[in-house]
Design goal:
The complex is a heterodimer. Chain A is of the alpha/beta class. Chain A has one domain: Rossmann fold, CATH 3.40.50. Chain A contains six helices and seven strands, in the order E-E-H-E-H-H-E-H-E-E-H-E-H. Chain A has a seven-stranded mixed beta sheet, with helices on both faces. In chain A, helix 1 links the parallel strand 2 and strand 3. In chain A, helix 3 packs across helix 4. The radius of gyration of chain A is 17 Å and the shape is globular. Chain B is an alpha/beta fold. Chain B has one domain: Rossmann fold (3-Layer(aba) Sandwich). Chain B is built from six helices and seven strands; from the N terminus they run ββαβααβαββαβα. The longest helix of chain B is centred in the last third of the chain and has 17 residues. Classes of the chains: A alpha/beta, B alpha/beta. At the A-B interface, strand 1, helix 1 and helix 3 of A face strand 1, helix 1 and helix 3 of B. Strand 1 of chain A pairs antiparallel with strand 1 of chain B, so a sheet runs across the interface.
Chain lengths: ~220, ~220
Amino acid sequence: MPDTIISQDVDLVGGYMARPMAEGKYPAIVIIQEWWGLDEHIRDVTRRFAREGYIALAPDLYHGEITNDPQQAGKFAGSLDRSRAVRDTQAAMNYLKDSEYSNGKMGVIGYCLGGGVSLLTACSDSIDAGIVYYGGLPNPLDLLDNIQAPILAVYGEDEGEKANELEKELQARNKSVDKHIYAGAGHGFFNDTGGNHNADAAADAWTKTLAFLKTNV
Amino acid sequence: MPDTIVTEDVHLVSGYMARPIENGSYPSIIILQEWWGLDEHIRDVTRRFAREGYLALAPDLYHGSITDDPEQARSMSSGLDRSRATRDVISGIDHLLNHDMSNGKIYTIGYCMGGGISILVACNRKVNGAIVYYGGLPNPEDQLDNLQSPVLGIFGSDETDRATSLENALKARGKESDIHIYEGAQHAFFNDSWEERYDSEASSDSWVKVLNFLNKNS
């Protein structure tokens, strides 16, 4: 008699990991996606960090969904349960901490949608460095009270006010923050596959990001 | 030039899922493993719930580890980060409730170590019902203050004390509960792959109670 059920192993939270090939222990970094999903660009960024000597992991916050359509991306981002996103990020951190390639240090970096999630994660977990590229502030702002890690804030000129507000709110709470606003650059400027790519700003931000990580992670 | 890095698609939280083949709208249930890990027995239990019309998922709380050695199991169980386990379960709940075939109802059932986790999760996230087979109170116990789900507790008479503690802790807080103690049955009596502990009558009767509890709270 044929069965009435089907069964399979499932992925509840997936991700893309890149690390140096050489045996050893490396500082870890979680990379949090833009609103398109865990796309080729984010995979590329993950590999870049690996080449700099990090064990890097990008959790799939959209659980299999991906898009290059701004309308759809907006829908996905709007309906993303932020608590679930933080949980998925925590799952990534747990995975990295468990890894034999991890030296115990943990940084979190996010872009756009991911920038906001990176900040939320810094508010709820003990990490060694939090990096935000043009991300939104937490709601309520008082979540920032719990930040323990130094923050690097990278914004384009178009969102200078947001950057200034973040800096102000962190300084008011005696938190360490290093803010950079790139003149002539806009939201998404680091994404070299995107329409807002600004090569000079991206290169400089990359250098600053690596230096910040080297100091703290 | 050869690359200097390794890349991999990874599983951060995994599980074993079973569901009815036929399209429809079904309640969901999370099955929480004993201290051995996500073993064949738990997979079998997961399939049993699927056959009763549930989207059933057993999250892998040990992230790939499994054992049949009691000392190893004890060590893995006491070493299990309960906050991480709770998060893993909630990831499982999200997965099920987002499934096309979900009717929105969600229950947790756990055995032994999993029994404790079933209640712990219910203290952290409202579910339609939480079932505990011979499991312990959350630590600290005050987490029970946040419980918003009805509880069904199933114990062997070897753990009457534990059953009574749970019942008292829930009653004291005005929580809805139903606790059953099976005379002559032992811890793990529902595990039909464990000859020494398996009690077929207690097992069958408790299965009926479980299905009735799920129906009652649907």
